Amino acid sequence: MKNQKYPTKETLEKWTKDPKNWIWGIFYYNKEDKRIFPPKKNEEMGSTINFANPKSILALLIALAFFGMVIFLF
Asked: In terms of Cα–Cα distance, which of 47, 70, 67, 50 is closest to 58?
């Protein structure tokens, strides 16, 4: 049996649909999922941030700093 480096599409979908991975139903938190921006429960609504991934927190802070700088410059 091969050791898979990446989870299967079924596993990714299961993680997204699992209510245990959602804090208060809006914050995605799954340590097994290495994606920074996984899809929301309803994929048509876009992506969310995986708060269990430290890189995603960094990406959020950079985005907030960028938008804060834009607002400050106006």
From this structure: 50
Rounded distance between C-alpha atoms, residue 52 and residue 33, angstroms: 8
Query: How far apart are the C-alpha atoms of 74 and 50, rounded to whole Å?
Result: 31
Residue with tokens 């708060």: 51
- Indicate yes or no: pTM above 0.90: no
Distance CA 49, CA 57 (A): 8
pLDDT string in tens for the chain (74-residue length): 455 677 888 888 888 888 898 899 888 999 988 888 888 887 778 888 888 988 988 988 999 999 999 999 98
Is residue 52 within 8 A of residue 27, CB to CB? The reply is no
Query: CB-hemisphere CA count at 13 Å for 47?
Result: 9
Strand intervals (E) in the chain: 22-23, 27-28
